[in-house]
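Chapter summary example.
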Amino acid sequence: KQFARKVANRISMIRKLSIRNYALIDALDIDFYSGFSVVTGETGAGKSIILGALSLLLGQRADSKAVKSGATKAVIEGFFDISAYSLRSFFEYNDLEYDPENCILRREMQASGKSRAFINDTPVSLAQLKELGDQLVDIHSQHQNLLLGDGRFQMKVIDVLAHNDQILSDYHKEYKKYKLLIKDLERLKIENENNRQEEDYIRFQLEQLQEIALVDGEQETLEQEQEMLTHAEEIKSELYTLSGYFESENIGGLSLMKNILSGVRSLHRIYPSVESLQNRLETLYIEFKDIAEDIETRLESVSIDPERLAEVEERLDAIYRLQQKHRVQTVSELLEIQRKLAAKLEMIDSSDEAINLLEQKIAGQKDVLCRMAGELSQKRADAALCFSKMLVSAATPLGMPNLRFEVFFRTKEDLDENGAEQVQFLFSANKNQSLQPVAEVASGGEISRLMLCIKSLIAGAVALPTIIFDEVDTGVSGEIADKMGVIMKNMACYMQVISITHLPQVASKGSFHYRVYKSDTDLDTVTRIDCLSEEERIEEIARMLSGVELTDAALSNARELLRK
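The structure predicted for these 564 residues follows.
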């Protein structure tokens, strides 16, 4: 009760649904309120149409046939109070405008078949709309009852009741680390196996590169030397000729420069203004002399050496062959290949140790997981015992007097992302009938009632979105229907609950009552919905009890149901 009072002030809910040009609806605006609301109406009046429109708003696939005949576009818009939920991360991750209290979803469908979705007036993908919609509204239909046989749903129920959200979050993080380590180990083993198969070839390639003892930059130096040695005779001849231009006694450049400089020096004694010219010639003579000496030195250094040329060409041929083999252009690239080959061999040599270390790390991580899984298992077992008792207590009065229910855990061969066990709900509704998986032996009506009870139990353990029961009470009547109505009304202490029903016992429990009906206009037939006044509720429930004709007895019965 304390929890109910605490939650009642922070219930998330749909506040308004607006539908335009959808199926038989031309224009419909429905205001919703917190607590328990019921929706009634004759078969075919359009309750499923309204529910279909809401499903589209929550991200279901669109059908252009749903656009009202003659209209170009259908628009469905929902206004939600989201103050009970911490949805900031969703809005920030999807780069959407965030209001901590209000949210607007909109879906537009063109008659051509195109569809658009919006969150707070920002275009979004259908997947984004559905992700948010799943957190705002839970439409519980007969189809959803199939979940009761799903092991993932069953485990989720147990974890909710065991309050395992934090330990599950921690376990998932550790399990992710564990799987990454296993992936690394598999990759390392594959690489090691592949490398070992190529080890001899890798070693041969590395020895080839090591034997030649490559030096970075040597190729360019050798190619220059090769060029010089190949043309040594021509170079020497040209240098000899140049040297003669400088050293010839008669017309040598140095002799000529020396005579010019001597004449300028003599002139300077009687004509001082040529001093700058003399200085320039002095500098030029020194440079000229230096060039002559350089040419002489080069002439002496260039030798015709066929043996050295053969050595250089042999070295270059070896380098070129390696470059062609490894499909590279430079010695630096060959050195990089040599480094990688050496690293591969080192890894092969140390791979057993690396694998052993990684296996030890995996074993340690698995120990962490086993401890956490053990804690999860214990909490689940404790919650399962309590859950079984509560479910039997809640469901037995709903026409299942001989109900037996157990939660069975089966230990898995290895840990997975959900822990160490699988779960299975076992059920028996009859005396002397053995417990069997609920999906195999429970009837549709029994599953429907069990799901109602399960959702009522978890409603007190976790903040749930608005829940809409779509004729979940089909197949029951009388006292059982009354008790199902009580369950839904009690759930509304924690959350907004809307029930689409044909049963007056359930309809009478609602705090708000909506009637769906068809109305004929001059042009067509349209679906309408009204929120009923107290007197209108009496008449609607009386019709549900007696049919079209309103008798005094039916009206009296309706008043009594509402009074209770």
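To summarize the output: Residues 1-10 have pLDDT under 50 and may be disordered.
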